[in-house]
């Protein structure tokens, strides 16, 4: 900022500071860095004092991480969890989008199904886990069922409300130009409701992740959730944090990639539904 | 020839005076028919199946009456609800307080952001074994899990509400020499209230999930423990009773917050979509 001579004179005479005084709010990046370092240091120091059975500390967790990640047991658990997660989530997306589209487009379907959809959506899916275990056993199918149910409703409800907000004018113009029902779906309804669907998918990914962890913790046989239970029952707290951190990373990566996909596929509208 | 009146045109063309009866004008008819058919089919086929795995509506109703009369359902419901209430109120108080602090100071926000984001990204279910190790199987672990599940939506929504308060309003208050306390309680809090309420609505659903998760794993008292117990001894009808009660609780709590939201925060309908 250039000052004219008069201003410079005035500044010199009044002995005003030419620079803004130091202010923490100008160095937010530094504050964040200090925060991370501070918390990790505090955890390390405090964690070393308490009994390692109850709380671990960062360097021990790092060591445990290197130790576990290479073992076949851990890799099998991680792959098993991911497989169940993928199958359940894909099934939930396929059925959720299909039923959501039909319910949004046809009132008969809506009225026939909405009592169940609303009732099941309000039921905490976690409460269904013991029932699903009873029906499907402790194996892979009960976990797929839980992931499926956890992911289904966010996608279904968002698709449904997305289709309902498709402007009637668009549909009428399509009809006026002789578009058949199939064309209406693929060229108008689906693209117009895509931002809603993507928002639903993002919610579903998070819910499905919670679903798989809970299911595996409850059955405690295979997968990352089972590892969590095993390490915590063995009081191996340092190992316990390894799957926790990996699951957190998985959640962040997945939700970011869905968000990026949303921006690529549906950049024209940024509407979401708060569930 | 005289111009015919509307009446005469209707007569001549034999037009209908009333809209043709359409099933679409009676959505509740379709809904009730759908539910009725479903319940009948369930009753019919449910009786054929193995009662260990499946049940039927009248058996569920019978089990419901039995559980009410024995007082067990009411007792466990009271236990669950008190844990839910304590945990939720704690997360409300702390979440709003910390959220306001984060929303009002960028430095505070930058300092707390990394740990909050890390904890929010972690699937909270994964931390329950750790909490059980620290707090045992009693009342306090349930409160802690409920708190952990409900805290972040309230915190993050409150912070974004406080951040979105228009600077003009705060400046006007300052110009009229309002002390900081008044700015907080008369300007920022009311302006952030719609955001806070949206957070509360998301949090209440998650608090319920937290309560069930904690009770399923500790399996000592509460509705979740009933669920787990009856699942293990194959009392499927009683399990359904608990599921139905939990679903009712879910619907009731969401309705309650929606009502509160309408009463308390009528002036703005902004929400933030949080999973």
Task: Give an account of the 3D structure.
The complex is a heterodimer of chains A (275) and B (275). The model of chain A is unreliable at 270-275 (pLDDT under 50). Chain A is mostly helical. Chain A contains 11 helices and no strands. Chain A is 78% helix and 0% strand. The N and C termini of chain B lie far apart (70 Å). Chain B is built from 11 helices and no strands. By secondary structure, chain B is an all-alpha fold. In chain B, 77% of the residues lie in helices and 0% in strands. The chains are: A mainly alpha (275), B mainly alpha (275). Chains A and B meet through helix 2, helix 5, helix 6, helix 9 and helix 10 of A and helix 2, helix 5, helix 6, helix 9 and helix 10 of B.
Terminus-to-terminus distance of chain A: 48 Å
N-to-C span of chain B: 70 Å
Radius of gyration over C-alpha positions of chain B, nearest whole angstrom = 27 Å
Number of helical elements of chain A = 11
What's the mean pLDDT score of chain A? 86
What coarse outline of chain A follows from CA principal-axis ratios? flat
Q: Quick summary of this structure?
A:
Chain A has helices spanning about 5-15, 30-50, 60-70, 70-105, 105-120, 130-135, 140-165, 170-175, 180-220, 225-235, 235-265. By secondary structure, chain A is mainly alpha-helical.
Question: What key attributes describe this structure?
Answer:
heterodimer, A: 275 residues, mainly alpha, 11 helices, B: mainly alpha, flat
SSE layout:
The complex is a heterodimer of chains A (275) and B (275).
Chain A: H1 5-14, H2 28-49, H3 58-69, H4 72-105, H5 107-122, H6 129-136, H7 140-164, H8 168-176, H9 181-219, H10 223-233, H11 237-265
Chain B: H1 6-13, H2 27-48, H3 57-69, H4 72-104, H5 106-121, H6 128-135, H7 139-163, H8 167-175, H9 180-218, H10 223-232, H11 236-264
């Amino acid at each position: 900022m250039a000052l004219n001579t008069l201003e410079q004179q005035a500044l010199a005479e009044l002995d005003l500071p030419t620079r803004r005084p130091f202010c923490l709010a100008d160095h937010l990046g530094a504050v964040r860095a200090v925060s991370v370092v501070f918390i990790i240091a505090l955890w390390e120091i405090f964690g070393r004092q308490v009994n390692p059975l109850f709380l671990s500390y960062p360097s021990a967790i790092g060591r445990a991480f290197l130790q576990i990640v290479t073992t076949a047991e851990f890799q099998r658990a991680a792959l098993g969890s991911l497989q169940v997660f993928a199958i359940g989530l894909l099934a939930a997306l396929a059925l959720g989008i299909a039923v959501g589209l039909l319910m949004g487009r046809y009132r008969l379907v809506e009225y026939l199904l909405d009592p169940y959809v609303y009732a099941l959506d309000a039921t905490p899916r976690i409460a269904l886990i013991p029932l699903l275990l009873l029906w499907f056993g402790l194996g892979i199918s009960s976990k797929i069922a839980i992931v499926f149910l956890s992911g289904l409703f966010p996608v279904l409800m968002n698709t449904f409300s997305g289709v309902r907000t498709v402007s009637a004018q668009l549909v009428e113009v399509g009809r006026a130009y002789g578009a058949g029902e199939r064309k209406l779906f693929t060229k108008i309804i689906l693209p117009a409701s895509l931002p809603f669907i993507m928002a639903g998918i993002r919610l579903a990914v998070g819910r499905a992740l919670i679903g798989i962890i809970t299911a595996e913790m409850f059955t405690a046989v295979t997968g990352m959730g089972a590892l969590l239970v095993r390490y915590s029952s063995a009081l191996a707290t340092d190992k316990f944090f390894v799957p926790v951190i990996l699951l957190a990373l998985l959640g962040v990566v997945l939700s970011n990639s869905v968000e990026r996909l949303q921006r690529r596929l549906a950049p024209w509208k940024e509407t979401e539904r708060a569930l | 020839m005289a111009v015919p009146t509307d009446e005469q045109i209707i007569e001549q063309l034999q037009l209908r005076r009333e809209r043709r009866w359409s099933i679409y004008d009676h959505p509740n008819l379709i809904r009730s028919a759908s539910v009725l058919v479903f319940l009948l089919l369930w009753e019919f086929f449910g009786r054929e199946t193995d009662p260990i795995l499946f049940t039927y509506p009248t058996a569920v109703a019978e089990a419901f009456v039995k559980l009410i009369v024995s007082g067990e359902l009411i007792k466990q419901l009271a236990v669950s609800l008190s844990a839910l209430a304590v945990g939720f109120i704690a997360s409300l108080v702390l979440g709003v307080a910390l959220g306001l602090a984060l929303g009002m100071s960028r430095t505070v926000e930058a300092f707390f952001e990394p740990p909050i984001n890390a904890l929010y990204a972690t699937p909270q279910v994964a931390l329950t074994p750790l909490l059980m190790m620290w707090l045992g199987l009693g009342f306090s672990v349930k409160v802690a899990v409920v708190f952990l599940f409900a805290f972040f939506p309230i915190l993050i929504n409150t912070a974004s509400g406080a951040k979105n308060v228009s600077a003009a309003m705060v400046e006007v208050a300052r110009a009229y020499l309002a002390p900081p306390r008044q700015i907080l309680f008369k300007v920022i809090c009311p302006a952030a209230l719609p955001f806070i309420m949206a957070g509360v609505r998301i949090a209440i659903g998650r608090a319920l999930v937290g309560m069930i998760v904690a009770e399923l794993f500790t399996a000592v008292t509460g509705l979740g423990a009933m669920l787990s117990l009856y699942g293990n001894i194959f009392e499927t009808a009683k399990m359904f009773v608990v599921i139905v009660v939990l679903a009712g609780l879910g619907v009731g709590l969401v309705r309650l917050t929606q009502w509160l939201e309408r009463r308390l925060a009528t002036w703005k309908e902004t929400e933030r979509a949080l999973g």
